[in-house]
Amino acid sequence: MVGTASCSIGADVIIGVALKWVDLRPEVDPLTGVVSDDGRSHGCSASDHAALEWALRMAAVWDAEVVVATVGPSGADALLRGALAHGATRAVRVAPSGDSEHAPTSDEVGVLLADALAGADVVCCGDYSLDGGSGSVPAFLAAHLGAAQALGLVQLDIGGPGSLTVTRRLDQGRREVLAVSAPAVLSVEGSSAELRRAGLAAVLATRDAPIELRSAPPARPRRVRVTRRAPYRPRAQTIATSSAHLDVRDRILALTGALVDRTPPRTVHADTAEAADLVLEQLRAWGYLE
Length: 290
What we know:
- The protein contains seven helices and 14 strands.
- Helix content is 27%, strand content 23%.
- α3 packs across α4.
- By secondary structure, the chain is of the alpha/beta class.
- The chain has two domains: 2-215, Rossmann fold, CATH 3.40.50.620; 241-286, no CATH class.
- Strands 1-12-11-10-13-9-2-7-8-14 form a ten-stranded mixed β-sheet, sandwiched between helices.
């Protein structure tokens, strides 16, 4: 499948890169679910590294400027300076609003990154982060920039300024080839490219490189707030008293329901409206809907 879009790009090309500063080795308490945050193990994911590498390759072909941006605390400056050492030309960090009650949503992050990367012709992102993992920020970012989007890419072929042919991974081993033109937001898989090594001279030269700092506006009140977090605990099973005489094996089978008759799974090929009707029909059969 091939898609096309019109191209509108100026003489001075700007490529943006959205990076996320995350804990690469988080420790989670198995009883409480509390995550221990250690700033020494922070960095960005392999997909973010791939996004930066693709941006640098585009910059080499298009003679473009590369701007990297992230939303995070002061510790994220090390991540941005690392990107500068690899070849980025400018770095922007958006400081969180200071509301420690909740982390910004994907939509809120998209708004902040859109402001930091305004004017970019192409923005490269990782396909998903290591913490939230929803992969929704690139889509929100494209919406706020008013740009086209091509997400989950495994290959990029760079053409003239602002023009690319990209390959997306689809289900069941299929691929989709798209012709993409600026302005556009791209998200790439970590396996699509390996970030080049930064030279020692570049690393030393960027140790104190300036980072453009922007402050996020105060977070808007949310209509839905998380009041409590707890680890998943399955609901206890109630076994009839008549099963008390069963041996251990039979009691395990009774507890797990391993021998209970169930509706076998099925694969349905349908359009969107028909698929929605089938889902509603099945929910009614299970008793979730009246």
